[in-house]
Amino acid sequence: MRAPGRVNLMGDHIDYCDLAVLPMAIQRDVRIDFSPRSDSRVRLFNTNPKHAPAEFEAGAAIVPAARGDWSNYVRAAVQHFAPRVGSVNGFDAVVDGNLPEAAGLSSSSALLVASALALLAANERSLPRLELAQACAQAERYVGTNSGGMDQAISLLAVEGHALRVEFAPLSAEAIAVPPTWSFAIANSLTVADKSGSLRESYNARRAASEAALTAISQHRALQGRRPSYRELFARFSADELLPMASESMQGELLRRFRHIVTESARVEVACSALRTGDAQSFGAAMNASQESLREDCEVSTPELELLVDLALKHGAHGARLSGAGLGGAIVALVDESRAEGLLEALAEGFFAERIPARDLRHHLLLAKPSAGASM
Ligand code: NG1
């Protein structure tokens, strides 16, 4: 079983508001080799020696391993899907992968998705992909992150050569072709974005702020105390109308978080149009505006991410932004194919040379290939 990681091209910290996002699956993935068992035991071995083997009983109430333990993503999938399967067969599995972990490239969701598919296959079951993606998003809450559904959706629904405009509630996806002359470079900031561990609270706090901001704006006279969803709000008011309304309804951090949600959601539409028409300049400008918003309003950038973005812009990128939850993790930069190698060299020299041995470079710096979703 293989499930890809992803880079998010536009729309961060808004999927949990059920607002559309624009991720793309990449060529790096999590792979699980498994054989079904006749009992309900799940036995796991990871080819990365950092991750200890694990073993548990499949069922509806699986005790989690310690916070941050890799096996929790498999436990999450098995606990969620075991009751659907009924009398469940477990599996023996070897887990392997080439995604940098905790880099904002969604290795955790890829592991969960691959585990869900393995459990279903071990029990000769299958589910429609859309249903599976929704269920995997719910399943991931087992690890304590109150996440949105972007990562599971892209890992399951991605189409080779395309990015995916993903909408939520109900989940749907539109594949948009990536022009062959566009390259997306990914560079890992090497600072850890470990959502399942210490950064869980910061992530959940942003989601909580998105809810609180909605409650605050519903007190505005134009809404008369009726609390809409973000989608309803955006259907009724333009960004230009909403921002002054927000200034009257909230302040400080909450206002900044709300402003990020409003402007980022608008940028997803700009980016989708630019992708459809092959307008790299507009796409890049939207990426740059997104980075500013992620830094100033969402407050999830770091000095290392800033440095990478600056380097990318100085060396030919149309635009660059952090990708995913931030607070570490990777950046993504849009560059013309003809300038991509030059950009990689500049990032290697300007950022990685003094931080990691050259042999590790390929792991942390790559050109993304828009890849297909999970497969057996
Ligand atoms: P990453 O980048 O994998 O930490 C997280 C969430 C997404 C989304 C982004 C921010 C999980 C599994 N994924 O992604 O749903 O909210 O942050 O856009 O928590």
Task: Kindly describe this structure.
- The chain has 376 residues and is an alpha+beta fold.
- 43% of the residues lie in helices and 20% in strands.
- It contains twelve helices and eleven strands.
- It has a five-stranded mixed β-sheet.
- β6 and β7 (172-177) form a beta hairpin.
Briefly summarize what is shown.
This protein is of the alpha+beta class and 376 residues long. It has helices at residues 71-85, 107-122, 129-140, 150-157, 200-217, 230-236, 239-249, 252-277, 280-296, 303-314, 337-352, 361-364, and strands at residues 2-10, 22-36, 41-46, 54-57, 91-97, 162-167, 172-177, 182-188, 319-323, 330-336, 365-368. It has a five-stranded mixed beta sheet. A four-stranded antiparallel beta sheet has the order 9-10-8-11.
